Amino acid sequence: MKGIPRRIILLFLPAAFFLFVVSGGCGARPEPLLVLVYHRVDEGPFNPVPSVTPRDFARQVACLHRAGYQSITTADLYAYLRRNRPLPPRAVLFTFDDGRESVYTHARPILAARGYTATVFMITGRLGRPGYLTADQLRQLATMGWEIGAHTVPHPHLPELTTSAALREITASRVVLERLLDRPVEIFAYPYGDLDPRIAALVHRAGFKMAFGTRLGTPEGRSDLYALERLTIPRRGGLLLLRFATAAPFGPARRNLARLAKTAGFVRIQAAYSRRLGRPRRPHFPWLLPLLFL
Q: Are strands 33-38 and 91-98 parallel, antiparallel or unpaired?
C-alpha cells in the first residue's frame, strides 16, 4: 500500500468492514445462540422505557428467520446449559421485560408469522393497567406456547432493598402468576438488570431455576444460571446490531466490552448517562458492540 496515505487506509478499513456485514445480512458466520431482550414494540418515544418500532422489529425477526434461526424456550436453554442437551444449530430466545401491551398487539403476530414464540417477564403490579398486558392476554400467550416469568411486583432496584424486602418482591410476583396461569413459574428477570451476589442467592433460594440480567453476552456452559447474559436491542441500529452479532463470534466482543467497562473514562460516561435517565450505574451500552469487532 505504498503511496496511499495512512489516513485514507484508516478510514477505508472500518467502512469496508461495515459494508461487508451489511451486504452479507444475518448469519454470514452466525453466533449459534442469541438471547435477545426487548421491552416495548411500538411507535412511542424511547425514554424512559427502551422500545423498537413494529416495522424495525419485523425486519429484525425476518433477518433472523432468513438466517435459519429457530426460537427456543428457557426450558431448552436450561437443558442445554445443565444437561448438555443440544440446541438447534442456530437458536434464538426472544425475551420481553415488563409485560407491555405492545408485546401482545405488535410483537406476537410478527413472531407468530415466522413460527416463533417468546418469553415475557411480567411486572405483576402493573397487570391490567393501561399500556400493560391484561390477565386474559397473558393467559392467551401462555396457551400459544409463550413462557411467562416473574419480574417482581412494582419493579424496584432489588440491591437497594433489605434482604427480607427483596425476598418478598422476588416471591410475590411468582405467586400471582402461578395462581393466574395455574402452572409453575420457574424463571425470573431482574428489574433494570440490577443484581448482586446477595440478590442472586435470594432468587435461587426462592426456587427459580434460572434468572436473567442484562449483562452483554451469550449464555454458555460456564454461565451463572442466576446471572444469565442477554443482548439488549436498541431503538436505533437494532438490525445492524443483529447483523454484527450473527456475523462474528460474540465471545471476544463480550470480553472486550468487559475490559472497556472497567476503564475510568467509561465509568464516568456511564454514570452521567445513568443520572440523566434515572437508571442504575451499570455498564450497558449495547450499541457499542459493532465497534468491538473492528
A: parallel
Report d(CA 294, CA 284) in Å as an integer.
19
149 forms beta bridges with: 121
Domains of the chain: 30-246 (3.20.20.370)
The helix or strand, by DSSP H or E, that contains position 230, with its residue range, turns out to be: strand 228-232
Task: For 131-226, list the strands marked E by DSSP.
Answer: 147-150, 187-189, 210-216
Enumerate long-range contacts of 252-258, CB under 8 Å, 24 or more apart.
252/292, 252/293, 253/216, 253/289, 253/292, 253/293, 254/216, 254/217, 254/218, 254/229, 256/292, 257/216, 257/283, 257/285, 257/288, 257/289, 257/292, 258/283
End-to-end CA distance of the chain: 20
Torsion of CA 50, 101, 227, 206, to 10 degrees: 150
User: pLDDT tens digit string along 175-189?
Assistant: 999 999 999 999 999
- Answer yes or no: is pLDDT of 234 > 80: yes
- Which pTM does this prediction carry? 0.78
How far is residue 73's CA from residue 92's CA, in Å, rounded to a whole number?
A: 9
Question: What gap in Å lies between CA 100 and CA 103, rounded to an integer?
Answer: 6
Distances (CA, A) of 51 to 135, 140, 190: 22, 23, 18
CB atoms within 10 A of CB 186: 18
pLDDT at 129 over 50: yes
